[in-house]
Write a sequence for this structure.
């Protein structure tokens, strides 16, 4: 949200939906359930041909820790390809100009790549983990476990609410479908395929949805310039330049939309990178995907996915907001003769109006599809993450420590259903109290950031004490909320939804929430530091494939033997990957957040026509490369299993072998793949 929006007409003025309600229900209900049904069939096919049995906890929750690099990279892109990534980047582009989408993208890619450091460290230190919270419990005990459980659940809930609020508003605007119907129906199909397929179904659905989304986005990247009113990149530059002259932006150099010297853009960039570090590090779904990846797929998967992702919010946000700003005073624009209202902007309708402008009803259908695909794909990861907390960290830890494999699967199913319903209900409550995408996009960091440093230190710093780990995030959250609400009152004289959604209170609150735990945890630790022995992690037996009643040499016994063997064998290999991850994380942060944007901010440069054209050309090339990575790399990388499935189908064979525990179809030959069939005959 931005102060200039509050001066606009805040009434809920909307354009007539270009599509009928029937189209909305067909996409949300029919397409959702068709995809769910296809994923269930794929799950059963993999069980018959590759031995991937989703009635076993390890397969359901971690895909037997065997996902390859290509599928991991695709899943990483999908994890951040929220509906709000596209809607939010166009929103801040409309408000701040070209700086907005850039800072949106720069607030995502560095921490995705940084997560490779945490992911590979977890692989090395505690390879049998299922959730982040298991790591916290083993190191600090049950008090810390409960504190971090609450932090993670808050993170998941506010993230899902942000997704659903944005997606429901767009679906309603495109079809006239009742917003509450969309809110409750969106998670329905997701819950179905997640219920049956577990984490592997999430990976596969991530791939399918992301591939479709990228095809549609690449279509828009070309279609926009076929519109007569746009015509070319240089003409689009003139349109955006004229928009800045008609409605100059406060805080931008010369009031222009065509500059990185934007005070509002920079403030959003600071807010966004802090908030997203919290969203990544405190999101158990990111940890689950790293646990599910094979050891040599974690770092390249997260690095490739993180860098490829950058193009999506950057280019699409720039293109869509530029077209909307340039054509807002043109009769072909949906809201003509008025500008977009504050309600429309805050509901994330800049991108839908862009699509309607350049492609009519076809554009509306495209936005409806990508919104649906994006929100259901990311919802599946969130749902499986929360179900893992319910099953492993609540049920197995506190209710039934000796739970059997079937008990955990049953509680995973309970968790899937419960969280899908609860998230829909919570999002409905937010809607009725007047909270929308714009508000959650700006303030979510206040709640998601307190655990950033304590959680990172839990995995990387042996000295952090138990007291510091427990107290610092609680103090950080209290500090962040106090600064957020206090700033809103001090600056605007009241604490309301409007004042607490303004830029300055959200930036101050998010920064305080993110960084105050750092001195808290360091000071508390220095008073009484600990020296944690990392080998305690490897001494914990967390893998749940053991069946004591199975015959000797059975699948469970072989799987356990492979895990033990892989843990010992891969240590030097994983340390090397850890160093590589650290180098890439630092390089990505310096490139995307420091060396590229900050000199441009300081230069007070206003884009020329040639520079703006080059800006868009680089963006569109990057976007199409991302399409190739998420669409075709998983197929190339997973060709061995695809061939295995095809042979099994053609010859009518049913394999009982399980997939590799530590290998993938491609990768570093220095760490050979070990499968059950290599270790022991069936």
């Amino acid at each position: 949200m931005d102060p200039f929006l509050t001066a606009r007409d805040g009434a809920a003025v909307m354009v007539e939906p270009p599509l009928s309600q029937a189209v909305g229900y067909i996409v949300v209900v029919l397409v959702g359930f068709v995809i769910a049904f296809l994923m269930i069939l794929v799950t059963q096919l993999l069980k018959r041909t590759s031995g991937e049995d989703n009635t076993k906890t390890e397969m359901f929750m971690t895909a037997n820790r065997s996902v390859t690099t290509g599928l991991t990279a695709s899943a990483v892109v999908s994890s951040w390809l929220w509906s709000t990534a596209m809607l939010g980047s166009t929103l801040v582009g409309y408000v701040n100009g070209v700086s907005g989408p850039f800072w949106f993208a720069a607030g995502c890619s560095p921490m995705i790549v940084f997560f490779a450091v945490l992911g590979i460290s977890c692989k090395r230190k505690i390879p049998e983990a299922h959730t982040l919270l298991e790591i916290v419990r083993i190191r600090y005990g049950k008090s810390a476990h409960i504190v971090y459980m609450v932090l993670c659940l808050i993170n998941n809930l506010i993230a899902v609410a942000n997704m659903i609020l944005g997606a429901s508003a767009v679906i309603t605007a495109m079809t006239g479908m009742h917003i509450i119907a969309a809110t409750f129906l969106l998670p329905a199909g997701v819950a179905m395929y997640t219920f049956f397929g577990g984490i592997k179904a999430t990976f596969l659905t991530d791939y399918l949805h992301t591939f479709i989304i990228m095809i549609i986005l690449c279509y828009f990247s070309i279609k926009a310039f076929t519109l007569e009113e746009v015509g070319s990149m240089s003409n689009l530059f003139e349109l955006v330049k004229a928009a800045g002259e008609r409605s100059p932006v406060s805080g931008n150099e010369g009031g222009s939309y065509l500059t990185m010297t934007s005070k509002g853009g920079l403030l959003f960039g600071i807010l966004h990178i802090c908030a997203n570090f919290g969203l990544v590090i405190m999101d158990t779904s990111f940890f689950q995907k790293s646990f599910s990846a094979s050891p040599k797929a974690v770092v390249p998967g997260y690095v490739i996915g993180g860098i490829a992702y950058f193009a999506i919010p950057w280019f699409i946000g720039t293109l869509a907001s530029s077209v909307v700003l340039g054509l807002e005073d043109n009769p072909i624009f949906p809201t003509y003769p008025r500008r977009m209202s504050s309600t429309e902007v805050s509901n994330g309708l800049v991108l839908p109006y862009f699509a309607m402008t350049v492609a009519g009803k076809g554009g509306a259908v495209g936005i409806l599809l990508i919104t649906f695909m994006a929100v259901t794909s990311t919802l599946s990861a969130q749902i499986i993450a929360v179900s893992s907390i319910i099953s492993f960290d609540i049920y197995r830890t506190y209710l039934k420590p000796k739970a059997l494999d079937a008990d955990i699967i049953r509680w995973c199913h309970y968790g899937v259903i419960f969280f899908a319903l609860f998230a829909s209900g919570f999002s409905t409550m937010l809607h009725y109290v007047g909270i929308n995408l714009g508000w959650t996009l700006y303030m979510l960091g206040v709640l998601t950031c307190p655990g950033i440093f304590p959680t990172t230190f839990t995995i990387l710093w042996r000295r952090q004490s138990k007291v510091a780990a427990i107290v610092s995030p609680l103090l950080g959250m209290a500090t962040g909320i106090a600064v957020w609400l206090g700033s809103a009152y001090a600056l605007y004289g009241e604490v309301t939804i409007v004042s607490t959604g303004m830029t300055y209170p959200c930036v101050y609150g998010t920064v305080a929430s993110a960084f105050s735990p750092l001195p808290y945890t360091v000071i508390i630790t220095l008073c009484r530091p600990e020296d944690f022995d990392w080998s305690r992690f490897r001494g914990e037996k967390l893998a749940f494939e053991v069946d004591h009643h199975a015959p000797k040499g059975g699948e469970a016994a072989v799987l356990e033997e492979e895990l033990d063997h892989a843990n010992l064998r891969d240590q030097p290999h994983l340390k090397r990957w850890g160093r590589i991850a650290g180098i890439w994380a630092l390089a990505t942060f310096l490139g995307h957040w420091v060396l590229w944007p900050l000199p441009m901010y300081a230069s007070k440069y206003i884009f020329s026509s040639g520079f703006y054209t080059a800006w868009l050309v680089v963006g569109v090339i990057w976007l199409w490369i991302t399409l190739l990575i998420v669409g075709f790399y998983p197929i190339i990388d997973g060709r061995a299993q695809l061939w295995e499935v095809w042979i099994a189908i053609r010859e009518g064979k049913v394999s009982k072998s399980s997939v590799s525990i530590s290998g993938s179809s491609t990768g570093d030959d220095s760490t050979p793949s070990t499968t059950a069939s290599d270790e022991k005959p069936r």
Remarks:
- The domain at 3-679 is CATH 1.20.1730.10 (Sodium/glucose cotransporter).
